[in-house]
Design a protein that fits this description.
By secondary structure, this protein is of the alpha+beta class.
Length: 130
């Protein structure tokens, strides 16, 4: 991850497990299990303090695809499978990216901002709960 004004470093590591079943020819069944591990460190200690977020999230997807009539003769089987698997992996990663943003980053921001409430901005109920 490229550094920007708030981010010191960040990583996104993905692991994908693929199962391909051709027992029901002319249909091919694919199952893709994707797991991503993220790490994010913020570098602006004067504004909000040091913050590190680390976590993982997983998603699985299944799909059946009709094989082309010329499978093996005019169609390269490797390219056929790679294009289908690649599309499923991209869809899983897009979904995981949104999940990570909603769960890890937005939730961490909410928790951090809640902890910064000062008494002058709190209602009496908030002070009692805080």
């Amino acid at each position: 991850m490229d550094s920007n004004k708030d981010v010191k470093s960040g990583t996104w590591d993905g692991i994908h497990i693929v199962a391909c079943n051709m027992r029901e020819a002319p249909k091919v069944s694919y199952k893709v299990i994707s797991t991503v591990m993220i790490s994010l460190e913020m570098k602006e200690p004067n504004s909000y303090g040091q913050m590190s977020i680390h976590g993982s999230s997983s998603k699985s997807t299944s799909e059946q695809v009709q094989m082309p009539a010329d499978f093996g003769d005019g169609t390269d089987p490797d390219i056929f499978h790679i294009s289908n698997i690649g599309r499923l992996i991209e869809a899983n990663e897009d979904s995981l990216r949104a999940t990570v943003n909603d769960i890890y980053i937005a939730k961490q921001r909410y928790i951090t901002n809640t902890g910064r409430m000062t008494e002058e901005f709190m209602t009496s109920d908030q002070r009692a709960n805080f």
